[in-house]
Specification:
With 293 residues, the protein is an alpha/beta fold. The chain has 7 helices and 11 strands. α5 runs antiparallel to α7.
């Protein structure tokens, strides 16, 4: 086991910070500062919902723990330099950190990514796994470099199930123990600069944010593709859904069934899909209810 390290944690929610913190402490290390990225990109306006997230994180902060709310990579780096960090651990951080920040911790920066890298590099691996109908996803802990999700792998495990009725809460049930176990392995390896396996050049894919057109149902797609589209939006948040026009009415589709069920029938490319929950909308232009994904 590595000697006790001073560790900074970057994440996006109470459960996530707690999992990182407890894993570090159990491995004999000391988390000394949290950071929350309040916007999808540096130097951009604070995301909607960030204030609620900050309030929840603040209420759950361990006694004496600092919480940073950086607005830029430079600001984050300036703040972190004062903590004498041995390691920085990120889970759910959307910014590309410059070399000047990556070099601040003595042993660099670890990133936790919800895919079996190099599959689904990018900011939205879980959304693409749901969209593509994957039955499971993996967890990878890798060294962060100046590109997105390309650094050497320190720990990796596949097999986290994705329920059909997937929500962040239901996914976390299976994801949390795997994330904790893989982070523990990575923490043990992190101080060795030679530790880590290069990612394969095969099987590389990119999981970017959903395109605006994805917010509109296209019945030229298969029933399962549309079903997965609806599942993706439901994972993003309550009340989210793509829109469709049926009988001249615009509907936000909240839930669907691939088998006959009470609700509206929607004929897709290969057969019907049943809309079991929906809300009326006034417009169906691309971008409606896209939200942040």
């Amino acid at each position: 086991m590595a000697d006790g390290m001073r560790i900074g944690l970057i994440s996006f929610g109470v459960s996530e910070f707690t999992a990182l913190h407890e894993t570090c402490v159990r491995a004999g290390h000391s988390p000394v500062v949290y950071a929350y990225s309040r916007s999808m990109r540096p130097r951009t306006p604070t995301d909607s919902g960030a204030a609620r997230a900050v309030a929840a994180i603040t209420a759950a902060l361990p006694a004496g723990m600092d919480l940073l709310l950086p607005g830029s990579s430079e600001g984050l780096g300036a703040a972190l330099r004062g903590y004498g960090l041995d390691l920085l651990v990120c889970y759910g951080f959307s910014w590309r950190l410059p070399r000047s920040v990556l070099r601040i911790p003595r042993h660099g920066v670890l990133n936790i990514h919800c895919s079996m890298l190099p599959k689904y590099r990018g900011p939205a691996p879980v959304l693409w796994a749901i969209r593509n109908g994957d039955s499971h996803l993996g967890v990878t802990v890798h060294r962060m470099d100046e590109l997105f999700d390309t650094g050497p792998v320190l720990a990796q495990q596949d097999g986290v199930p994705i329920p059909d009725d997937v929500t962040p809460e239901s996914l976390w049930t299976g994801l949390s123990p795997v994330l904790r176990a893989q982070l523990a392995v990575a923490l043990d390896r992190a101080p060795d600069p030679s530790a880590g396996e290069p990612q394969s050049a095969e099987g590389v894919s990119y999981a970017g944010l959903m395109e605006p057109e994805f917010s509109v149902v296209d019945t030229a797609r298969t029933a399962r593709e549309v079903h997965n589209q609806v599942r993706t939006f439901r994972f993003i948040g309550p009340g989210r859904g793509p829109v469709v026009t049926i009988g001249g009415r615009g509907l936000k589709v909240l839930r669907t069934s691939l088998t006959p069920a009470d609700g509206l029938r929607l004929d897709c490319a290969d057969g019907p899909l049943w809309i079991t929950a929906s809300e009326p909308v006034e417009a169906t232009e691309p971008g409606t209810d896209q939200g942040t994904v």
